[in-house]
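Q: What does the assembled structure look like for these inputs?
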Amino acid sequence: MSDPAINVDGLVKLFTRRGQPPVRAVDGLCFRVEPGVIFGLLGPNGAGKTTTLRILTTLTTPTAGVAQVAGYDVVAAPLEVRRRIAVVIQASAAELLLSTRENLLTFARFHGLSGQELRRRADRVLEQLGLTEEANRKVQDLSGGFRRRVQVAKIFMVDTPVVFLDEFSTGMDPILKRSLMHALQEEAHRGRTIVLTTHILSEAEELCDDILIMNRGRQVARGDLTSLKLLSQGVYEVTIAFDELPAGIDSALAALRPLRSSVNGHTIEIALKEEESRVLDLAAGLARLGHVRHVDLSGASLEDVFIELMEES
Amino acid sequence: MDPLIAIIAREAKIRATNVTFIFWDLLYPLANLLIFGMALSRTIEFRVPGMPGDYTAFFLAGVLGMASFSIASNTAWSFFLDRDNGIFYEMLTYPMSRMQYLVGKVLFNVFVALLQAVLTVSLAAWLLEVPVRVDRLPLLAATVSVGTAGWFFLYAIFALRIRRNDAFNAVTSVFYFVFLWVSSMFYPLEPLPAAFRYLAYANPVTWQVDVFRYATLGLGQPSRLLMEAVAFCVFALVAFWYALRCLQQE
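A:
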């Protein structure tokens, strides 16, 4: 087995405030991430994802345990770690007084790039991220979505073996997000390890080879999408589109005690944990309430798994 | 590219794109020298024993000290700008140590202060006819460099410790008032009341401005100036150590 890109063992981070008991933001976390993998760190607000990322990116030190990135310990050799990572932090971060191009050049200079190679890469990344027209505009004059785009563009300027993305798609339009996800998958194929946190579970479902779900600083589940979905065996999603939403649908849905349900226009979506034959009966019962245009039945999504795990933990 | 050069290049790009920075760093001290120096020279009788020239000549050292103080404050304020833009925390993940980050910023700070000093001394010598001691220009350059670094480190401590921009601005305003006025920047201390004089003697601005006055006009006792220079170096080193600690705790 190759050396892991990331190795975390017994990681603990305590936050202490005077007069209050310490908060265990990260509580004995252990995981390894292999090179070339897109790794998703998922969890609700306050789960400890960002704190874990802050430790791995040398922004804060752990209270106990080991965290290594590209073979280097984040406490003993933080500079070696920084030489091997590119980070998109959760908050918007850009050089507002500089142009889009200068933002890319400035970042890459810190990673040792210079001369023709630097400029060539900047041109390529500007093109790749659809920023060519904004290349010479100051970032302070760009919209929030474009600023985020500039922030994310920087990771494509360098070849660091590990990339950290904290909620990278915030404020991005769906078309750009899709092309960016494709670009991230290409980077992973080239051998870069991508670690991301996101609240958008469909994004993680599509992108991540390996997922760790955490809550209250601890691991709740770990695995690829298929193995995580097995945790929610017996969970089914039912989607029914009606011509007109039938009267009394709300009470009918509530009576089924679904894991979750939503009504969008004339379409209902519910997640049920039942035997397959029973789910079919229940879906048929709902469909009889009105004139149906379309019915869809599928297995659990990552969102179902996530919600179930959070309720259990 | 070496991280230090990358930081200097970054700071230079940011400063060069903003006219406000250029005004405050380079032109504001010149305006002070021209307006106050010239106006007071023509309206008051001003004599200091052993000093060649008029009030403009005396005030030249004060303007150099003021520029050093202001440039350091502007560079330290850029920590706030970086924090507001979010780039501060992202930069802490760049391949450089915290010490390189601080030293890179101070090197650029010193470069701007030296450029400003060249402008001020040239204006004073050629336009305002101040009899500047050319043989002591190396001492002047050293005083600009160490002085600006010391003030930057002091301001950096506050910029890193204080989270609110308005609170930092309040601190710098108080600093401006206390440090600049309770010092030998604008007037000689000898005729002033004892309490004021002792406070001014304990002020690092006085130490720096006295050395500037010796470097530009040859005014002052070398033994006392040596003591003031050593005291300022100690002040700068302590401020550097504490600023670095603050940055490492970020």
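Residues 55-85 of chain B form the longest helix (31 residues).
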